[in-house]
Amino acid sequence: MSGKDQIEKSSQPNSLNFDVVIVGAGFAGMYMLHRMRGMGLKAIVFEAGDGVGGTWYWNRYPGARCDVESVQYSYQFDKELEQEWTWSEKYSPQPEILKYANHVADRFNLRKDIVFNTRIESAIYNEEKGEWGVVTGAGDTYQSDFCIFATGCLSSFNLPSFEGIDSFVGPTYHTGEWPHEKVNFKGLRVGVIGTGSSAIQSIPEIAKQAKQLTVFQRTANYTIPAKNAKLTPDYVKSIKQDYAGLRDRASKKPAGYDIPLNSQSVLEVSQDESTSEFKARWEKGGTQFLGAYGDLLLKPEANEKAAEFVKSMIRETVNDPQVAELLCPTNIIGCKRLCVDTDYYSTYNRPNVELIDVSKIPIDRITSSGVSHQEVDYQFDAIVFATGFDAMTGALSNIDIRGKNGQSLKEKWDGGPQTFLGLTTHGFPNMFTITGPGSPSVLTNMLPSIEQHVNFISDCILYMKENGHSKIEPDLSAELNWGLHVNEVADVSLRSTCASWYVGANVPGKPRVFTPYIGGFPRYVERCKSVVDNEYEGFSLI
Ligand code: N01
Q: What is the greatest pairwise CA distance in the chain?
C-alpha cells in the first residue's frame, strides 16, 4: 500500500492535519521524518519521485558516484546502522548509495509516512490559524504546524534554452534526471554538452560505449583522479572499530570531512617541495588535493602553484597538445567545485572522442540531427545535457511558498536568498530549510551537515513544545546580520571570484550572490549552538 493510500484510509475527509509536513525524501527528509516520529509527532513526507534517495534517485547517469569517501558520506545518528552497513568502495557508485537510502527507509520503516509521486505546488502560511497549507500537484491540501523543506541543493536541473532544443529527433538526456532503465550508447554518435562534475564522471563511461563522442566545453574544469578502490575487510573493520573517532575528527574540519589538511603556506616552501606534495596528493586522489597547503584558496599566487601542477598533469596525460591546452583551465583551482574523476583526461586520447571549444562562440542551436556550432553541423544519435542545476534555491523557487501577509519567498529572494543560518527566513514562521542557502551545505560533506540541521530543527521544536511556544520566526536584524557575515567570509575566499553555480552564474537572470556559508562547519555549528544556549537568540518565539 502506498503512503497516499494509507493516509486516505487512515484519515477522515478534510482532516489532513499534521504536526509537520516535510518536502523531499532524500537523506535530509528521511532523517527528519525519523526524528519527528521519534518525538511522537505526526509527520508526513511528500516526494516527487517514486522512491527515496533524492539526488541519488535522480542522478543515475553512467559513472555517477560520490566524491566524498563513502565511510564518511553516511549517517551517524544510529550506531547499529553504522555497524551493519558495509560500503564496498572508497567512493561508492550511485546504485550502492541508492541501495543504502532504501536500506535506511526499510530499517526505520519510513515509507509508511512518505507519499511518493507527489510534487508540492504551494505552501501557504495562514496567519490567523498559525498553520501551513501545503498543496500537492493533485490539488490535495495538507495542514501542518511546521513546514520543513528538505528539497536538496542540487535538485532542480538546469536546461539552457538552446534555440531549436525541441527539434532534435533522437533521444536527449539530462544527467540530473537520468532514466531508470539502462541507456545503451553502443554504436551511437553522442554529443555531451557541459564539462562539470556530472560530465566529467559520465564522459569516460559514455566514450567506452559510443561510436563517436563529441564534448562541447564552455569552461575547462580542474579534476583530480579519484583513485577509487574496493575497500578491504581490514580497512572496513578498522573504520567500524572507531567510527566515533572518525566522526569526531571530521566534525572539527572545515568541510565536516576528515581529510589531511596542511595549514602551511605553499609560498613558504621550495618549488620541489610543493611539486612533490602535489604529486603525492594527486596519487592519493580526491578533493584532499586542495588541502595540500593552507592558502590555496586565499591567495591567487598560492592557488596558481596548485593550478600549474594540475595543468602539468593534463599536458602529461593528453597526447594531442592542442587538446591538452583546451583542457587546461584558466581560472582559479577550486573556485568552481573541484571535480573528481576516473580516467577523464586520458579519455581524450581515444580515437572516438573529440572536444569542441564553445567558450568564445556559444553553440548556435540544436538541430533536428545534432548540434550546430560556428556553422558546423555535428550529427548525433543522442544528446546528453550535463548542464547542471539551479543550485541552492531552484527547488524552493519552483514551489509557490508564501509567508506572512502573503509574501512570496521567490519575491523576497529576488535579489538573492536572505536567511538566518540558512535554516529560517523572516516572515515565514515555523518554516525550515534543511541545508538552505546561507548554511555550509554544498561546501561540506552533506551528510553531517544534514544531520546537524535536522537535529537543530528537532531540538527547536522540542524546546517549543516544552516551553509552550507555538510559533518561531527569525528576527529581521538577525537575518540581516547573518547575511552580512555570510558575505564577509565569502569575500575572503577565492571561491567567490568566478562564474560558478555557487554564485548563481550558470542560470541566466539569477542574482550573483555567493550562496553557501564558507566560514566552515565547526564555526557554523558553534554559532548554532550559541543561538540555542542563549534561548534561541535571534528568533522571536510566541
Ligand atoms: O553541473 P555544473 P554538474 N552551453 O554546473 C555547462 C555536484 N555533483 O551537474 O562552466 C555550454 O558543474 C557549464 O559550463 P560553464 C557537485 O557539487 C557531485 O556537472 O557554466 N555549456 C558546465 O561545464 C557539482 O559541482 C557529484 O561555462 C553549458 C556544465 O554545463 C554539482 O553537482 C557528481 C551551458 C554544468 O556543470 C553540479 O555538477 C556530479 C551552455 N549554454 C555533480 N550551460 C559527486 O558527488 C551550462 N553549460 C561526484
A: 74
Q: Is 160 in the pocket of ligand 1 (CB under 6 A)?
A: yes
Which DSSP state fits 230? B
Condensed to tens digits (0 to 9), the pLDDT of residues 67-91 reads 999 999 999 999 999 999 999 999 9
Predicted TM-score (pTM) above 0.90: yes
Mean pLDDT of 474-495: 97
The backbone torsions φ and ψ at residue 157, rounded to the nearest 5 degrees and listed phi first, read: -75, 155
Distances in Å between the alpha carbon of 141 and those of 48, 147, 217, 282? 16, 13, 45, 53
Report helix, strand or coil for 339.
strand
| Angstrom distance (rounded) from CA 97 to CA 211 | 30
- For 334, the grid coordinates are 577550486
d(CA 506, CA 392): 12
Task: Report CA(481)–ligand 1 centroid distance (Å).
Answer: 31
Tell me if 58 CB under 6 Å of ligand 1: no
- Residues with Cβ within 8 Å of residue 357, at least 6 apart in sequence: 217, 326
Q: Exposed, middle or buried, 271 (CB in 10 Å: 0-12/13-18/19+)?
A: exposed
